[in-house]
Specification:
mainly alpha, name from scop, 2 domains, four-stranded mixed beta sheet, 12 helices
Length: about 350
C-alpha cells in the first residue's frame, strides 16, 4: 500500500506574497503602512518654518498685550476687582490664542496631509476593541524585548545624538552673538533667541526628514514581511474566495447534465437530423412563421449523437447524412442559435428535400 503525504501541509513558512484580500483585511483591522517618524519630522520642520514667517506677528501680539496689561496694572488702582481681573484674563487669553492658533492649525493641517499621503482615508473601530491578549504579561514582555522595540530604542538614541550635535555645533558657532545679547534691549534679545530657535529647528527638522525616509523604507519592509503567507494559507484563501475546486467541478458537471437533458428534450421538435454519419448529430428546426432562419435545437458527439438519432427514430424525424455540413455546424453554431447566413443554402437544400419527401408521402 502506497502512502502519499503532501509535505506542503506541514510547511508553514510564510514565503508567499500577500494577496489583495489579505491586504484589505489588514487595512480594515487598522494595520496600515505608516511611519510616525515621517509625521514628526514634517511637523517639526513646518512648525519652525511657520514660526519663522509669522515671528514678527507673534512678537508684536505678545508685546502689545504685555504692555497693555502692565499699563493697566500700574495705572489702575482698581485693577484687582473682579471685573478688571476678568477683562485682563480675557485679553491675555486672546493674545495667546492669536499666537498659538495659526501655529497649531498649520501643524494640524500638515499632520492630516502627511497621514493621508501615507494611509489614505481610513475609518475603523477595530483598533479600539479590547483584546485580552494585551493583558498577558508574557506577551507584554515579548513586545518589550522584541526586535521592533530594539529598533525603536536605537532610533531614539540616534535622534538624540544627532539633534544634540546640531544644537551644540550651532550654539558653539553662535557663541559671540550669545555673549552680545547681554548688551541688547529686550526686543533684540527676543529677536536673537527667535533666530536661534528657528535655525536649530529647521536644521533638526531636515535631519529628521532624512531619518524618517529611512524609517519609512524599514517600516514598508516590515509591513509587507508581516503580510506574507504560507502556501497553505494561500490555498485556504483561494478556497474561500473561489470555492472548493472539487465542489465547483461537481456543480459544473451537474449544470452540463441539466443542459444536456433540456437539449435532448428539444430533439422531438426538430424537422431534420444532420449526421456525420455516426460521430456527430445536429437537430435543426425551421418554422417560417416564427423565425427568419433555421435554428439549432441540439448537437452532440458519439454517445450524445447516438441518443439524438434514437429519439429521432422514435419520433420519425428524418435523418440526413452530410459530413461536411454536420462538422461545420458542430464547430461554429451553438445550441439555441440560428444558422449563420453562409450555411443557409446547404441547410435549405436539405429542408427542401425533406419537405418534398413529406409531400410525396
Amino acid at each position: 500500500m502506497e502512502l502519499i503525504i503532501n509535505l506542503q501541509l506541514f510547511n508553514q513558512e510564510k514565503t508567499e506574497r500577500h494577496t489583495q484580500k489579505k491586504l484589505r483585511e489588514s487595512r480594515e483591522k487598522g494595520q496600515v503602512l505608516q511611519s510616525k517618524e515621517v509625521n514628526s519630522a514634517f511637523l517639526l520642520l513646518v512648525s519652525f518654518m511657520v514660526l519663522s514667517l509669522l515671528a514678527a506677528h507673534f512678537g508684536s501680539t505678545l508685546v502689545s498685550g504685555t504692555y497693555f496689561i502692565y499699563n493697566e496694572y500700574l495705572n489702575n488702582e482698581f485693577v484687582f476687582n473682579l471685573a478688571n481681573v476678568n477683562r485682563l484674563t480675557k485679553i491675555a487669553a486672546y493674545n495667546l490664542f492669536m499666537v498659538f492658533v495659526p501655529l497649531a492649525s498649520m501643524a494640524l493641517i500638515i499632520g492630516l496631509i502627511i497621514s493621508y499621503m501615507q494611509v489614505g482615508f481610513l475609518f475603523t473601530t477595530k483598533t479600539l476593541e479590547i483584546k485580552l491578549s494585551r493583558l498577558n504579561p508574557i506577551e507584554g514582555f515579548k513586545r518589550i524585548f522584541s526586535l521592533k522595540s530594539l529598533v525603536e530604542l536605537v532610533k531614539s538614541f540616534v535622534k538624540i545624538i544627532l539633534i544634540g550635535y546640531i544644537v551644540y555645533s550651532y550654539m558653539r558657532n553662535q557663541m559671540v552673538n550669545i555673549t552680545n545679547t547681554v548688551a541688547m534691549d529686550v526686543e533684540s534679545i527676543i529677536s536673537t533667541l527667535k533666530s536661534f530657535a528657528v535655525s536649530i529647528g529647521i536644521r533638526a527638522g531636515a535631519v529628521l526628514i532624512i531619518l524618517a525616509i529611512l524609517d519609512y523604507v524599514y517600516q514598508r519592509y516590515e509591513y509587507y514581511k508581516g503580510l506574507k503567507m504560507s502556501k497553505q494559507e494561500v490555498k485556504e484563501e483561494y478556497k474561500q474566495t473561489e470555492g472548493n475546486p472539487q465542489l465547483k467541478s461537481k456543480i459544473k458537471e451537474k449544470q452540463r447534465q441539466m443542459s444536456m437533458m433540456r437539449m435532448i428534450q428539444d430533439v422531438p421538435k426538430a424537422d431534420v437530423i444532420i449526421t456525420n454519419p455516426t460521430h456527430i448529430a445536429i437537430a435543426i428546426q425551421y418554422d417560417s412563421n416564427k423565425a427568419i432562419a433555421p435554428k439549432m435545437l441540439a448537437k452532440g458527439q458519439d454517445f450524445v449523437a447516438k441518443k439524438i438519432r434514437e429519439i429521432a427514430n422514435e419520433h420519425e424525424i428524418p435523418i440526413v447524412e452530410n459530413k461536411k455540413l454536420a462538422r461545420t455546424m458542430f464547430e461554429i453554431v451553438e445550441v439555441g442559435d440560428f444558422i449563420p447566413q453562409d450555411l443557409y443554402q446547404p441547410v435549405a437544400e436539405i429542408l427542401a428535400y425533406i419537405y418534398q419527401t413529406n409531400n410525396k408521402n
